[in-house]
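Entry 12.
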Amino acid sequence: MEGKTLEKKWYIIHTYSGYEKKVMTDLEKRIESLNLTDKVFNIIVPEEETIELRRGKKKVIARKLFPGYVMVEMLVEREETNDGIGFRVDSDAWYVIRNTNGVTGFVGVGSEPTPMEDSEVQSLFKKIGLKIDEETLNEAKEEIVLDFEVGDFVKILDGGFADEEGKVANIDYEHKRVKVMIEMFGRMTPVEVGFDGVKKA
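Predicted 3D structure (tokens):
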């Protein structure tokens, strides 16, 4: 199997107007309860502060930049083909987002969601006063390429279980760790190691 390239991308989801904050709150709860926090990272309703004069008094109010839209940062698989570069959204995350009350769909062509350009995200964040620090930016650009996936057999390279072989049970992209099931005393035992601490068997 070829190594997969994964990166974080921002997507826009369309909601019923007036449901933006409810969708954001519901989504955060669902992502947490369904253990998808390693695939969906941030959910925001883009707003900017404006000053309005009401009865002669200045009042600061938050105004939605895009009524009916919510931004979601997700882990996606980058695919390079003859037609160009494409990004594939995780099917579980797509299903959960798509089936959240108030969501009408992703912004994109056909059924395939289209990620925002990095430059679009930066200029938008500047407008709404969100800071993107260099670390976040570099992390977003960092590409994780693994030559194994869940179900594959790998060899542990270091630590107390060096040279042991086991089956990949879980891959935590956010913390760059792999859970490997190895046999110990006749039973399967989970061992967690960093991405660079294993190789495909």
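Annotation: The helical segments are 20-33, 91-98, 118-128, 134-141. The first strand starts at residue 4 and ends at 15.
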